[in-house]
């Protein structure tokens, strides 16, 4: 059996994995990144929308090569058709770019490779190596060949279905109401505003979630929906999405060129995302916005944090859980309050009927909000509908 030796093995070549591999390699660690697919970034499993403000924070320069559309603003639509239109000056961090995600992911992986990380494609982790009770690497199948990668530390960046963390003894299970079932079409021949993303909310439209339209120029858009797991009893997400498309005249001539689906976690993160010789990042750590389902930003941040902490751990020759706890502090200091607040908001908004959602949209559309984000929207809602924010008022 072929064997590799390295300082850090990263399982998963998405944004979280590539960022971790890059920062580990830049710090002088011998790093190997595994990607199970034949092409990084494909097939697509993402709505491809990101905000702009965090890119500089993680050392990513915007590149026209992977920016498909630069949004002017966003529209929030209620079940009865009430709308709240925001230009970029008010939309703030909730509006930004629509990506060509496969090119974005490849760009991040290229940065990792340029830093010195070795990338093994078509390589799926099949288990972990435990020696003397310690995590010592991963087993994998590479191009059909069984291999072992022995490492001082493992980064689990293998997404929603993460098995590496579970194999290493970390409980990553989710409650059904913290899972969102999603489906998305890439559609052509749409009669839509090419400069505004659209979010449609309400139980009759997308129970416990929302429906999105992300323009990609020339009458093309990603049109998708996410439905809370506990609300999929009567119909799956495709039924709701098809019903909306059939009822909207803007889709009269529309055709689908691509269909993608999957699950998204909507909880506020794992109780702990480190263990001895293990760091868990991005979707694998359940670090994803519970309201929007957005995870690219969180994956990039946590990947960067993981890389930096592992470099420091290497200097001390200590990859124990206690030595890796600075990673926990970094991501929690930066994101935990927002994730918890948005998780609570997600839970409460899922309980509201369509009439209340209509009232909420009318309320915020008539309010003077400087920058529209989840936090400021909740501040307005708190005044008129205090029960929506009951239990997490201190975070607003």
Description:
This protein is of the alpha/beta class and 396 residues long. The protein has a domain at 2-46 and 102-174 and 269-335: FAD/NAD(P)-binding domain. It has helices at 15-26, 88-91, 101-115, 164-167, 237-247, 296-316, 321-349, 354-365, 374-384, and strands spanning 2-11, 31-35, 49-51, 67-70, 73-77, 83-87, 96-99, 118-121, 123-131, 134-142, 145-156, 179-188, 196-201, 210-217, 220-228, 255-265, 274-275, 278-280. The strands form 3 sheets. Strands 1, 2, 8, 9, 10, 11, 17 and 18 form an 8-stranded mixed sheet that branches. It has a 7-stranded mixed sheet with strand order 6-5-13-14-15-12-16. The chain is globular. The model has no long low-confidence stretch (mean pLDDT 92).
Order of helices and strands: EHEEEEEHEHEEEEHEEEEHEEEHHHH
CATH topology description of the domain at 2-46 and 102-174 and 269-335: FAD/NAD(P)-binding domain
| Text of the CATH class of the domain at 2-46 and 102-174 and 269-335 | Alpha Beta
- Label the CATH architecture of the domain at 2-46 and 102-174 and 269-335: 3-Layer(bba) Sandwich
Distance between the termini: 56 Å
Rg computed from alpha carbons, rounded to a whole number of angstroms:
21 Å
| Major beta sheet summary | 8 strands, mixed
Fraction of residues in H or I helices: 25-40%
Q: What is the count of DSSP helices, taking H or I runs of 4+ residues? A: 9
Q: Stretches where pLDDT falls below 50 for ≥5 residues? A: none
Number of strands: 18
């Amino acid at each position: 059996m072929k064997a590799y030796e390295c300082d850090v093995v990263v399982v998963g070549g998405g944004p979280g994995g590539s960022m971790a591999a890059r920062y580990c390699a830049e710090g002088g660690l011998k790093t190997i990144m595994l990607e199970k697919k034949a092409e990084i970034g494909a097939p697509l499993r993402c709505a491809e929308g990101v905000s702009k403000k965090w890119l500089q924070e993680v050392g990513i320069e915007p590149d026209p090569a992977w920016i498909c559309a630069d949004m002017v603003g966003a529209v929030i639509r209620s079940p009865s058709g009430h709308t709240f239109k925001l230009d970029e000056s008010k939309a703030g961090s909730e509006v930004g770019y629509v990506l060509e995600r496969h090119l974005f992911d490849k760009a991040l992986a290229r940065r990792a490779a340029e830093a010195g990380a070795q990338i093994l494609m078509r390589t799926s982790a099949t288990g972990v190596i435990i020696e003397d009770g310690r995590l010592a690497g991963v087993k994998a199948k590479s191009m059909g060949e069984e291999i072992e990668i022995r490492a001082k530390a493992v980064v689990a960046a293998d997404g929603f279905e993460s098995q590496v963390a579970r194999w290493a003894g970390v409980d990553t299970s989710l409650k059904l109401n913290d899972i969102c079932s999603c489906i998305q079409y890439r559609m052509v021949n749409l009669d839509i505003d090419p400069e505004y993303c659209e979010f449609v909310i309400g139980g009759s439209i997308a129970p416990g979630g929302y429906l999105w339209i992300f323009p990609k120029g020339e009458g093309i858009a990603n049109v998708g929906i996410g439905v809370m797991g506990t609300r999929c009893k009567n119909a799956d997400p495709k039924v709701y999405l098809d019903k909306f498309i059939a009822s909207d005249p803007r889709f009269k001539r529309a055709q689908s060129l691509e269909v993608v689906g999957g699950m998204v976690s909507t909880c506020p993160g794992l109780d702990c995302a480190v263990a001895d010789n293990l760091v868990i990042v991005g979707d694998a750590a359940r670090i994803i916005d519970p309201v929007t389902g957005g995870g690219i930003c969180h994956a990039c941040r946590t990947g960067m944090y993981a890389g930096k902490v592992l470099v420091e751990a290497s200097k001390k020759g200590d990859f124990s859980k206690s030595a890796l706890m600075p990673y926990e502090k970094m991501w929690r200091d930066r994101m935990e309050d927002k994730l918890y607040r948005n998780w609570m908001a997600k839970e409460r908004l899922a309980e509201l009927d369509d009439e209340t959602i209509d009232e909420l949209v009318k309320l915020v559309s008539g309010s003077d909000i400087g920058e529209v984000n989840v936090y400021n929207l909740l501040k307005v809602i708190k005044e008129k509908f205090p029960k929506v924010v009951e239990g997490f008022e201190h975070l607003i």
